Amino acid sequence: MTKYVGALDQGTTSTRFMIFDHAGGVVAIHQKEHEQIYPKPGWVEHDPMEIWARSQEVIAGALKNAGITAADLAAVGITNQRETAVVWDKTTGKPVYNAIVWQDTRTDVYVNEFGKDGGQDRFRAKVGLPLATYFSGPKIKWVLDNVEGARAKADAGQLLFGNIDTWCIWNLTGGVNGGVHVTDVSNASRTMLMNLETLDWDPEIMAVMGVPRSMLPAIKASSEVYGTCVGELAGVPVAGDLGDQQAALFGQTCFSAGEAKNTYGTGCFMLLNTGEKAVPSKSGLLTTLGYKIGDKPAVYALEGSIAITGALVQWLRDNLGMITSSAEVEALANSVEDNGGVYFVPAFSGLFAPYWKSDARGVIAGLTRYVTKGHIARAVLEATAWQTREVLDAMNADSGVALTALKVDGGMVFNNTLMQFQADVLGVPVIRPKVAETTALGAAYAAGLAVGYWAEVEDLRANWAKDHEWHPQMDAAKRDAEYAQWKKAVTRTFDWVD
């Protein structure tokens, strides 16, 4: 048997390539950051060519670190920042514009226009999503409407669209020389263009948004062979594709209905497996595709998306200079006993779940002369936990199942202060697995399953192991009082943008 499986994990702030063994253990990793481009307030872009260059560099770096070649890999999977839209020319392989990132709010004009007929939930019954700047569909329209010549080229069948998974797979498999133009159900479900029932692009919504079908990738299962790599990974099948949050759900082995995970990254994303049934949300959550393995039925999930969590720590570091590295935030927060009455609601690009208010903006509430930077740091960490509590409340309401524990992953789960506070405000245990990088692991699992490296989905459960568990220590009365203060602070962010 070939020894390993690889995963290209293309995230919002960095790209990494990870190599895993059969037990799900990390063999090697290489990671590089890419530039965050902010042309105007509310606009967030990435350079797709830089992302592809970084992808090639980290693939080569990880293979070197492991002391192996492409021949030692059974397959490679892709996982990616979702809703970040790339439009490129299929003859030149060059983007016609920068990638428009999921955090970008420039499409609010379109979102408001679409909502005039049917409101924010106009397409929700079909796609499981509210009208919001978050999703890819309106971003495609913005490119076609605003980049000179793009609309004509699209109509002539010259342009291709993809979330970042599609862009990476197309380039990995040859680009202009026969690159495969595909996506999987989990990524397609984040465009606002895919029908949850048919698992195909919806003609009505494509017409409303002015997106030609010729631009859109073929929708595939999350685990199947899409094509074969050229270049550094020559000969290796590309066989897994999952949006980052669905990949984490899969990597956390949440294969049964009612199992949930929360990923703490740039944003925070909680997903609850709802089985082979799409559960409509009445509480502001997203109904999304969890994953689809080969020709087996698709598995659905409820998702609560929070725009700004880890990004708030970066903001404290880069914009305010209060810390010099993200790791310092924990020590600064622990220099005080509590938040000093301060609540920080980071609605930098509006509020996502469960509010969906694109006109909200960030607020620091409760400031007095007593407050120090330690209190601000603590409020920054607590913001992540409170936002997660709001999403969990919505999940409990929608699913009718009270969560008994929360599996967590992502970069922030090594902040013990945050994890303890998270358990305190949820009132349930919080569990960190041994392999915290479950996003890349999920993509590797999907790819390995497609080529028989792992035989069955259930075989993967044996790989999951607990690293640490936090139990609630806060009394209920204090939790309720502080949550009420948080809720009050959230209302202060509403309707800020006219």
Task: Outline the low-pLDDT stretches.
Answer: none
Q: Got a strand count? A: 23
Can you tell me the overall shape? globular
* Count of separate DSSP helical elements: 15
Concise description?
This protein is an alpha+beta fold. Helix content is 32%, strand content 23%.
Name a few traits of the molecule:
6-stranded mixed β-sheet, 498 residues, 7-stranded mixed β-sheet, alpha+beta, single chain, globular
Would you write up a description of this structure?
- The protein has 498 residues and is an alpha+beta fold.
- The chain is 32% helix and 23% strand.
- The chain contains 15 helices and 23 strands.
- It has helices spanning 48-66, 108-115, 124-127, 136-146, 150-155, 164-172, 185-188, 203-209, 244-251, 310-318, 328-333, 373-399, 416-426, 438-450, 476-491; strands at 4-10, 14-20, 26-33, 45-46, 73-80, 85-89, 99-100, 159-163, 182-184, 194-195, 200-201, 218-220, 223-228, 237-243, 260-264, 268-275, 286-291, 299-306, 343-345, 363-365, 406-409, 430-433, 466-470.
- The strands form seven sheets. A seven-stranded mixed sheet has the order 17-18-16-15-21-22-23. A six-stranded mixed sheet has the order 3-2-1-5-14-13, with helices on both faces.
- A hairpin with a 5-residue loop joins strand 2 (14-20) and strand 3 (26-33).
- Helix 9 (244-251) packs across helix 14, helix 10 runs antiparallel to helix 12 (373-399) and helix 12 (373-399) crosses helix 13.
- The longest helix has 27 residues, at 373-399.
- The radius of gyration is 21 Å and the shape is globular.
- The relative contact order is 0.13.
- The model has no long low-confidence stretch (mean pLDDT 94).
